[in-house]
Amino acid sequence: MNLGMCCTDDSAVSPVISVILMVAITVILAAVVATFALSIGDSTTDTAPQATFTFGFEDNTSYNPSNGGPGTPYTADRLTITHDGGDTIASSDIAVRTYGDGFKYIEDNGDLGGANYRSRRTFAEMGSSSDVAAGTSVTVTTIQQDADDPNRDVTSLNRQEIYVVYEPPASDESATLGYWAGPDE
User: Fold this and answer.
1) Same domain, 72 and 145
2) pTM score
3) Which of 46, 54, 144, 145 is the most buried (most CB within 10 A)?
4) Which domain, by its residues, includes 22?
5) Are residues 38 and 67 located together in one domain of the fold?
6) 29/129 Cα distance (integer angstroms)
7) In whole angstroms, how large is the CA radius of gyration of the chain?
8) CA of 56: how far to CAs of 53, 150, 157, in Å?
C-alpha cells in the first residue's frame, strides 16, 4: 500500500468547494432580488386617491337657464355627478371625461356653462371649489335639438360613457375613479 498516495489525494475537495460556491451564489442572488423588490415600493410615492361617486341621470328634462336666451326653455339630458365619500381631491386634479359626443355643464346659478361641447373638463373648470370632498357635485348636460330649431346642438347623454378621472397635472398617470354608461350605450 502506498501511504504517500493517500495523503496527496484531494479528489473530495472539488465537490465541497463547488457546493460552497453554489450556496454563496444563491445567497447573493437572493439578496439582489430582495433589494430590487423592496426598492420598488419606495419608488411609487404617488397613488391615486380613493373616492366613490354616484351618478343621477335625468333624460329629456326641461331646462330654463336664469339668463334666458333664444328658444328657452328647451330639453336637455342632465347627469349629476356627486362625490359620496373617500379622499378629498383638488378640483384641478379631477376631470369628467367622455369618449362620446362631448358635453356642457350647468353652473351653480343654473346657467349653461361651457362655450362649446368638450370631451374633458376638470371640476375646477365647472366651478367646483378648490377641493372636491364628500357632497361636492357637478352637473353635465347635453341639449336636445328641437325639430323647429336646426341651429341647436345635437347630442345625447343616452349614448355616452362618462368617466371621473384623477389626472394630476404634474404626472403622466391617471386613474378612473367613477364610470357611468348611458341607457342606450
Assistant:
1) yes
2) 0.66
3) 144
4) 14-42
5) no
6) 52
7) 32
8) 10, 29, 12
Three-state DSSP class for residue 85: strand
172, three cell numbers: 403622466
State whether 36 and 110 are in the same domain: no
pLDDT in tens, the chain (185 residues): 555 555 565 565 677 788 888 899 999 999 988 888 777 655 555 688 999 999 999 887 776 665 555 455 667 788 899 999 999 999 999 999 887 677 777 776 666 676 667 788 899 988 887 799 999 999 888 776 544 445 544 567 887 889 999 998 788 888 999 999 988 76
Helix locations, the chain, DSSP H = 3-8, 13-43
The answer as to whether 8 is a domain residue is: no
How many domains does the chain contain in total? 2
Describe the strand order of the beta sheet including 51-63 as a list of residue ranges: 51-63, 74-86, 137-143, 103-106, 112-118
